Amino acid sequence: MRLALLLVDDLPTAEDVVQDAFAALLHRHGRRLADLDDPEAYLRTSVVNSARSVLRRRRTARAYIPERQHHVPSADQSVLLAETHQEVINALQHLTRRQREVLVLRYWSDLTEAQIADTLGVSRGTVKSTANRALNALGRQLEIPR
């Protein structure tokens, strides 16, 4: 749930993404779930791919609908994210999609570089360089000396 929330930045959408991933896993593998090598990795990859699809649809919809002038945060947003974390979340939104995915998988989900590479379908070197660039960009945005 947290992975989806950090990727799509919207609790109801994150819940839908996770529910759809579980439903697809059950529909596709059902009782043969034990046959999968790593069901957790399979589910995590499904969540990341579903989040990408949601973000792609949002981008397409925003191209046709003018953005609202004033963004009003949801009532539960302050409960979900402490004020100190909100600054980091806002800075994450300025990163590229892949950079955001790598950092969320690495620091929030505590995955190894190999697991992240598997989940995103990239090489370990790409994960390392993307994480380094993302951390540098976050440091500049948050004005943290490295």
TrEMBL record:
Highest taxon listed in the record's lineage: Bacteria
Keyword DNA-binding: yes
Alphabetical keyword list: DNA-binding, Sigma factor, Transcription, Transcription regulation
Domain spans labelled RNA polymerase sigma factor 70 region 4 type: 86-138
Record domain RNA polymerase sigma-70 region: where: 2-59
MF GO annotations: DNA binding; sigma factor activity
Pfam family, one: Sigma70_r4_2
Cleavable signal peptide: none
A GO BP entry: DNA-templated transcription initiation
Assigned protein family: Belongs to the sigma-70 factor family. ECF subfamily.
Protein name: ECF subfamily RNA polymerase sigma-24 factor
Lineage, top ranks: Bacteria, Bacillati, Actinomycetota, Actinomycetes, Kitasatosporales
